[in-house]
Structures are given as structure tokens and as C-alpha cells.
């Protein structure tokens, strides 16, 4: 399906990016999965070729493109493998916070290096005792003179091992009512005294994506590293979660499309009882059902992306897409593995990796249960 928001320029960009990935990513992805990390060298090559933060204004090292170019990058990286999610988080989730709320000094200090890959970013919201309930975080930042003293722990942090710059949600006002009004965002550099990285977390899937715990122990952060206004952090996060959840929905849609393609190829070549399993009615019905769900998902998603690019408020629809498309992809992973038979359970078949990778999409960026809460509230319930 041709995306309605993409032009010929976008498609030329896709061809160039795909050629880059065929040389620099596809041959090495299996090794990255085994190593449980994507090398920094790949990030630098992405930056050198203009594939990091393309929508950054030119004055900060970007190309000043529309968000359609980011969609192309997201799609092509997902085709390589879901473990590339940290690049999309850097491009489309963390960096936009600095663009929107950073001071001119912060932008000039960090953004050019974000575009080259010299700085890899992460965002630290989740804590051992606080996930979907962001207002319940316990990491504190107390202003003492010219610095905030940060204490607390974050977990499940994407890019946690590589991160040079972390956007940290913390409580700057412990007595705020309601609680979320006491949350602020701080930009914390990896060399900051009192900031350390915990163990590299071992996950069920997304093996090549580095995920870690972050610890702040009397971590002294200059007050000029406050992002935006003190006490406005929760609102900033709510504003930016629309794009984050859209990125997750897009990845789920592409994963579903990839799983269907690889399964079609398999069932046409695999025989049972003397004929291709694609000829069995049960197989045909399963494929027909999945293909229909995928086509409908793509139509909804493309319209949603077009509205997002146009600057419309699509929080309700994004919540719907994040919930529905991640659930769809998870169901398709199960069906496609079943159609692969025993081979689907073997690591040498890509469906096995997809089966491992896709479930977490219904958890991060807000669980699908939270998506339903948002939808219900936006419908006036």
C-alpha cells in the first residue's frame, strides 16, 4: 500500500536507507542479537549518512525534514529487527523533548552530537515501583544552591548501557498536590558524579537492544540541566507520548506485515501429505484472516500518521492504534509460528525471533490496559 503522506522524495530516501542497511545492518544483525547490543559504530555510521534525527533543524545538525522521513527510517529498521527500537527512541522520542522544551544553550550543546551519533540518548521514567503510574515515581531531585541532588533508581531503560545523555523524570516537589505537579525533567550526562549504570538486563526478546537499570546516588546535576520549567515534567511527558505510542504502533504494524510475508513464503514451499500446505483450506483461511487484519491496520495507521504530521490532536486514535495493532501483531506471531510447525520454534527461523520480540509492545509506552483507560476517558466515560 502506498502511504498517502509520502512523496517520491521519501521513496528515494527509502531506497538509499535500505541500501545502507543491506550493507551495514542485515549482515550483522544476528551477531548483534548474540552480543545483546548494537555497536556504537553502527550509530556513528547512521549519523554520518544523515539517518539520525533527520527532522532536526539544519542549525542543529539535522536536515529539517518532515516526519515522513522518520516513518521511513522506523519502517526499514523494524524490517531488520525489533531490536533496533533504541534508534527510534533516540530519533523520535527523546530528541523531540530537547527540541520542544530545551534552552538554546541545551540545544546547541546536545543536538548536533545527537545527529552524528556521538551522543546516544535515553529517557528514564519507569522505576522498580512505578510503571504506568508515572505520578507515583519516587526518584527525587532537591535543589541545593546551583545544583539538583538526585536520588533514586530507574529500570527497563532502553539504550541504558550506551546512553550518554538521559532524560530523567524526578520529583522536585514532594508536597505537590496533585502529585504529578511535582515532577520535573532533568538532562543527566553519563559522566555526572553519583550516576551509575546497573546490570545489562536479560530480556525474553529484543536481545540486541541494550536495556539497563540506572542508579542515582547523591547525583549532583547543574540546575541549568532542568528541561523546561520545574513542575511541568508530567505535562511534557503526556504531550510527547502521542508520538511515542505512534512509533510503537508503527513498529507493530510492520512486524505483522513481515511475519505474514515470511509465512506466505514458507507455506508455499513446505509440503505435507504430498502437496504444499498453502493448498489446505485451514491454512488459506488463517492467511486470509491475517491479511485482512493487516490491511485494515495499515489503512488506519497511515491515516493516523497523516493527521499527526498535520499537527492534529490524535491522542484517542493513537491510543486505539497502540492497543489494537500491538495485540494484532502478537496474535499474528502465534498464528504464523503455528503455520511454520516445528520449524517455527527453531531459532534459525525468523518467526521465532518475532514471536519473542513482539509481546513487549503491548507493555511499554503505556500498557494496553492504560490505552483503554485513555480511550474511555476521551470518550467521556
Automatic annotation (TrEMBL):
Membrane-spanning intervals of the chain: none
Would you say which domain of life the source belongs to?
Answer: Bacteria
Q: Which cofactor does it need?
A: FAD
Locate the Acyl-CoA dehydrogenase/oxidase C-terminal domain: which residues? 231-379
Q: Which residues form the Acyl-CoA oxidase/dehydrogenase middle domain?
A: 122-219
- What does the record list as GO biological process? butyrate catabolic process; fatty acid beta-oxidation using acyl-CoA dehydrogenase
Give every Acyl-CoA dehydrogenase/oxidase N-terminal domain span. 7-118
Keyword Flavoprotein included in the entry's annotation: yes
Query: Which Pfam families does its entry note?
Result: Acyl-CoA_dh_1, Acyl-CoA_dh_M, Acyl-CoA_dh_N
Entry's family note: Belongs to the acyl-CoA dehydrogenase family.
GO MF terms, alphabetically ordered: acyl-CoA dehydrogenase activity; flavin adenine dinucleotide binding
Keywords from the named record = FAD, Flavoprotein, Oxidoreductase
Protein's recorded name: Acyl-CoA dehydrogenase family protein
Amino acid at each position: 500500500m502506498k502511504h498517502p503522506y509520502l512523496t517520491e522524495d521519501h521513496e528515494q530516501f527509502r531506497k538509499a536507507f535500505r541500501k545502507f542497511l543491506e550493507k551495514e545492518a542485515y549482515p550483522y544483525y544476528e551477531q548483534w542479537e548474540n552480543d545483546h547490543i548494537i555497536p556504537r559504530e553502527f550509530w556513528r555510521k547512521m549519523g554520518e549518512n544523515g539517518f539520525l534525527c533527520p527532522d532536526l533543524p539544519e542549525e542543529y545538525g539535522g536536515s529539517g525534514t518532515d516526519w515522513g522521513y522518520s516513518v521511513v527510517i522506523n519502517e526499514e529498521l523494524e524490517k531488520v529487527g525489533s531490536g533496533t527500537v533504541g534508534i527510534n527512541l533516540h530519533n523520535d522520542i527523546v530528541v523531540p523533548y530537547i527540541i520542544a522544551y530545551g534552552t538554546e544553550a541545551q540545544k546547541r550543546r546536545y543536538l548536533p552530537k545527537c545527529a552524528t551519533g556521538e551522543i546516544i540518548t535515553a529517557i528514564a521514567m519507569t522505576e522498580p515501583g512505578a510503571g504506568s503510574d508515572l505520578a507515583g515515581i519516587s526518584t527525587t531531585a532537591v535543589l541545593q544552591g546551583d545544583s539538583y541532588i538526585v536520588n533514586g533508581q530507574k529500570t527497563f531503560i532502553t539504550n541504558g548501557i550506551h546512553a550518554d545523555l538521559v532524560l530523567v523524570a524526578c520529583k522536585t516537589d514532594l508536597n505537590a498536590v496533585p502529585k504529578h505537579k511535582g515532577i520535573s525533567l532533568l538532562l543527566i550526562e553519563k559522566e555526572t558524579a553519583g550516576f551509575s549504570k546497573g546490570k545489562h538486563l536479560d530480556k525474553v526478546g529484543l536481545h540486541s537492544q541494550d536495556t539497563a537499570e540506572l542508579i542515582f546516588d547523591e547525583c549532583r546535576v547543574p540546575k541549568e540541566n532542568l528541561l523546561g520549567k520545574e513542575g511541568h515534567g508530567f505535562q511534557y511527558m503526556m504531550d510527547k507520548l502521542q508520538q511515542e505510542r505512534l512509533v510503537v504502533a508503527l513498529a507493530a504494524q510492520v512486524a505483522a506485515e513481515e511475519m505474514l510475508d515470511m509465512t506466505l513464503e514458507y507455506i508455499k514451499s513446505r509440503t505435507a501429505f504430498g502437496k504444499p500446505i498453502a493448498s489446505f483450506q485451514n491454512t488459506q483461511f488463517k492467511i486470509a484472516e491475517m491479511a485482512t487484519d493487516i490491511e485494515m491496520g495499515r489503512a488506519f495507521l497511515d491515516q493516523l500518521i497523516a493527521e499527526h504530521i498535520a499537527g492534529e490532536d490524535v491522542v484517542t486514535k493513537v491510543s486505539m492504534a497502540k492497543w489494537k495493532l500491538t495485540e494484532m501483531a502478537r496474535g499474528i506471531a502465534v498464528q504464523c509460528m503455528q503455520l511454520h510447525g516445528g520449524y517455527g520454534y527453531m531459532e534459525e527461523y525468523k518467526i521465532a525471533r518475532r514471536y519473542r520480540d513482539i509481546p513487549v509492545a503491548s507493555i511499554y509506552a503505556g500498557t494496553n490496559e492504560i490505552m483503554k483507560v485513555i480511550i474511555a476517558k476521551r470518550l467521556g466515560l
